[in-house]
Design a protein that fits this description.
Layout lengths: L6 E3 L2 E3 L12 H10 L11 E4 L4 E12 L2 E8 L4 E4 L1 H7 L13 H5 L50 E13 L8 E11 L5 E9 L2 H4 L8 E10 L8 E11 L1
Antiparallel strand pairs: 1-2, 3-4, 4-5, 5-6, 7-8, 7-10, 8-9, 10-11
């Protein structure tokens, strides 16, 4: 992901995303992500307050960026401007006391504050802070640049329920932040959407429901089933999920 550059409009500093960002596959993923970021409880919220010292504006979450282990939100103002913001910072803005501790007469500075630090500043603090003087260090020899990893090209997924063929690769678990126990899942391989023009997905995953447990499935089983595929990651390698598999037939 590239650097985030600031733009300034009407005394508001924005940090719009410079690269492609992730959007939500469906309402279920939006709800899961939002709860994981601590932005709402059981009922998902669609709008949030972005607060300055002298004003507050409504925003919606358009998607998110991934930077190492961090998620950075991409939010949209009602005038269409986009900016990046840390989830915790947006959460703080929903507090009734947010901004009241700012000194009087400092409204211009507060209004020009960015809606979240640029990603390169996230670990070091504000770009306006003066650096602390440090003893000179012996310069290190330059390292050879790393080869960038090739990004997986995202496929255009069918919207409706379709028929699949796949093999069971592994039984695994996925962390559930809202439960003391992990969710049981099935990792699939050689996943293909069947039809006149078959679509090869490669690896995918699905929940290991009680219905599926009753089928006595084993690693290596070849299956055909109906379901709906969505763009929802299990990890960096497995980026597609099959929802509600049904009419399962062992081959």
């Amino acid at each position: 992901m590239g650097d985030i550059e600031a733009t300034k409009t009407n005394e508001m500093v924005y940090y719009p995303p410079q690269d492609e960002y992730f959007t939500f596959a469906d309402e279920e993923e939006y709800a899961d992500k939002g709860r994981g970021w601590g932005l709402f409880g059981k009922a998902p919220k669609k709008q949030f307050w972005y607060k300055g010292a002298a004003s507050q504006r409504l925003v919606t979450i358009k998607g998110y960026l991934e930077y190492n282990v961090l998620n950075i939100l991409v939010i949209e103002f009602e005038d269409g401007n986009l900016t990046c913001i840390h989830p915790s910072y947006l959460k703080e803005m929903q507090s009734g006391s947010f901004g009241k501790e700012l000194p009087a007469g400092d409204t211009d500075t507060a209004e020009a504050e960015p809606s979240g630090l640029p990603i390169d500043e996230a670990a070091t603090g504000s770009a306006d802070q003066e650096p602390t003087a440090k003893p000179a260090k012996k310069p290190k020899e330059p390292k050879a640049p790393k080869e960038p990893k090739a990004k997986k090209e995202k496929l255009e997924l069918p919207v409706d329920k379709v028929k699949f063929s796949a093999k069971i690769k592994e039984f695994a678990t996925k962390a559930n932040p809202f439960s003391d126990t992990d969710d049981e899942v099935i990792l699939l391989e050689e996943v293909v959407v069947l039809g006149e023009a078959p679509l090869t997905l490669g690896d995918a995953w699905c929940g290991y429901s009680n219905t599926l447990k009753g089928l006595g499935l084993e690693v290596g089983d070849a299956l055909e089933f109906d379901g709906k595929v969505v763009d929802k990651k299990f990890n960096k390698e497995i980026i597609y999920k099959v929802n509600n598999p049904s009419k399962i037939v062992k081959q």
